[in-house]
Amino acid sequence: MDIVPDTSAVVDGRVSERHERGDGDPIETVYVPEAVVSELESQANEGRESGWDGLSELRRLADRHDAGDLTVEYVGRRPTSDEIGAAHEGDIDAVIRDVAAEYDATLLTSDAVQAEVARAKGIAVEYVEAEVSEVGELAIESFLDETTMSLHLKTGVGPMAKRGDIGDMHYETIREEPATEAEMKEWAHDIEESTRRSPDGFVELDQPGMRIIQFRDMRIAIARPPFSDGIEITAVRPIVKTDLDDYQMADELRDRVAEQQRGVLISGAPGAGKSTFAQAIAEFLADSDYAVKTMEKPRDLQVGPNITQYTELGGSMENTADSLLMVRPDYTIYDEVRKTSDFRTFADMRLAGVGMIGVVHATRAIDALQRLVGRVELGMIPQVVDTVVYIEAGQVHTVYDVTTEVKVPHGLMQEDLARPVVVISEFETGEPAYEIYTFNRQVVTVPLHDDEGGPADSGVDRLAKNEIEREIKSVARGKVDVELKGGNTAVVYVEEGDISYVIGKGGGRITDIEDRLGIDIDVRTFDEHPGRRAGGGGGGSAGGSGGSAPSGQIVTPEITSRHVIVPFEGHSGETVEVRAGGEYLFTATVSRGGEIQVSRGSAIAEELEDAIDRGRQITVAPQ
To answer: Where is the composition biased (Basic and acidic residues) (predicted)?
Structure first.
């Protein structure tokens, strides 16, 4: 019997094993394709144990050839570097099949796909299962103890670890002696080869310079130059597995997610215990007769075997979502929701009727919900997310109920100002904590309580003053000062020469402003301001030298044919104030592209362009 082994059979030592067993037709000649040699050489040069294992098998075959036990011949052409680089796409396998066909030999393989393709092409095939063995502890596990959440190894740096309890982690050096290049290579090889040989390991991501591996309960990232400035290994593992009963408000949360499919955001700072809580929710739902799946990249939630864990399909979570919609789970755990595409996929699945639980990084509970602003239509937010759970130090800190109402926002008075308002209420008490709505074409988030729990400034107190000031400044030539008098009344102080401009003929201009803002405005001169004189100190918030010092991040707007574009990267979805020379211009929400676009020709754009022309410093500051 003549055989042609492919790379998988050589790496696993299946040729010499098959010859030693002697079962079936005895092997007479082994035709080793040069393509196999090239692939093994490439793997060995990359430091992969599979390459060295394969070369060891070739040495064993050479010894048997020298002893006259069997004939070994190296045949076929050497593949090109492009073919070796595209080995995962089947280029090398095709060359090996051609050799088997040319020599009318049996193809020996541990690759199921290779075997099926060869059979389809009429080539004789002997398929043997790939070698899988039990693997002991990894070498890096000697650095771990029961309190270690993550291990951080890098060439030239002493090994570091995060240790402690959830919410009380400390990043500390665990060995003073720096890790050497040889040690780092040895640890990386041990991880990669143990993953290949163990049924408990698989590769999540394999890109030049970065490989992410899931091995048992550890997620291990191996970075190499030129992607990183040195070899780095980061291993993260869960140190606690919890039950929903371990958390505050367990009964209430259990009832809430079990009564119907919901949209839930689990938020918190890194290391706060978000994923641990998500795992507890997933286990409870699975035990409550719900079909539960997960969407993770990488897959590291510690859930039972009855919960299938999915990752990206074809490099996209959108493809994963499309597949899950065919499976129709009752609930899907999405860990983690970060990019705009993640939020859109989350929203699409929720609107399709799937219960969704997303894990989101946020430093406050309200911040998690604000990340939907600009990504989901405002009125649709409560249909996508109706519950926000904020985790702090491993415990449930805050739970919000999210609903929508058509009402006059808190602090506004006139009935014709009614609009859709997203109301965020305390779950336990039902007391509203925030409102999100559009105000003067901008989406704003208004707290209804201060940090001590007392009443916060109303929507008018927080927003109307700035909007009134902007409107009056668009017609006044001098300084402007605004004082609020009650819920829907304001007094505006201007220079005496601006009175007629602001009021307009027959009061028409100020009436238009009042109608737009829904606020009664009394226009007076600075001479009428208690304790002030026109032009005196502190006489207003507008005007060149009378403005406050610039604050916020300095930006350089770009003026195009249609827009004035204000860049503010890293703040997508946030509500911010744009200022010129420290003076308020307008409030806006940063787009997902990290910028604010103002249409040219609008009053806001004209003010902004005028400030740019005058050389005033433009700044942007989060509210």
So the answer is: 14-24
| Residue 358 φ/ψ, nearest 5 degrees | -110, 145
SS3 562: coil
Tokens of 175: 């060995």
Q: Helix, strand, or coil here: 462?
A: helix
Distance CA 220, CA 150 (A): 9
Tens of pLDDT, residue by residue over 453-508, are: 555 554 445 566 777 887 888 788 788 888 877 656 888 888 888 888 888 887 88
Query: What is the C-alpha to C-alpha distance for residues 378 and 444, in angstroms, rounded to an integer?
Result: 11
The residue ranges of DSSP E strands in 330-374, in sequence order, are: 331-335, 355-361
Supply 404's token pair: 């929508």
Q: Could you give the CA distance from residue 347 to residue 613 in angstroms, rounded to a whole number?
A: 42
Quote the CA–CA distance of 70 and 63 in Å, as a whole number.
10
DSSP β-bridge partners for residue 424: 402, 434
* 224, 207 Cβ separation under 8 angstroms: no
415's tokens: 């009935």
Q: How far is CA 163 from each of CA 89, 166, 179, 361, 401, rounded to the nearest angstrom?
A: 42, 9, 19, 21, 34
- Which of 563, 620, 553 shows the shortest CA–CA distance to 586? 620
Cα angle for residues 266, 272, 274 (degrees, 5° grid) = 30
Cα–Cα distance, 411 to 279 (Å, whole number) = 41
The 3-state DSSP class for residue 108 equals strand
Q: Which residue has the tokens 């043997």?
A: 128
Residues 232 and 170: beta-carbon distance below 8 Å: no
In angstroms, the CA 2 to CA 292 distance is 50
For the stretch 297-322, pLDDT in tens is 877 788 888 999 998 888 899 999 99
CA 202 to chain centre: 22
> What gap in Å lies between CA 131 and CA 109, rounded to an integer?
11
In the 8-state DSSP scheme, what is residue 534?
T
Q: Is 115 helix (H, G, I), strand (E, B) or coil?
A: helix
Residues 455 and 447: beta-carbon distance below 8 Å: no
Between CA 332 and CA 345 the distance in angstroms is 12
Reduced to 3 states, what is the DSSP secondary structure of residue 11? helix
What Å distances lie between residue 337 and 266, 347, 393, 394, 598, CA to CA?
A: 10, 11, 20, 19, 29
Which tokens go with 339?
A: 């990019």
> Do the Cβ atoms of 257 and 264 come closer than 8 Å?
yes
Question: Token pair for residue 88?
Answer: 């995962």
Q: In what order do the strands lie in the sheet containing 106-109?
A: 71-75, 29-33, 2-5, 106-109, 125-127
DSSP structure string for 365-391: HHHHHHTTBTTB-GGGHHHH--EEEEE
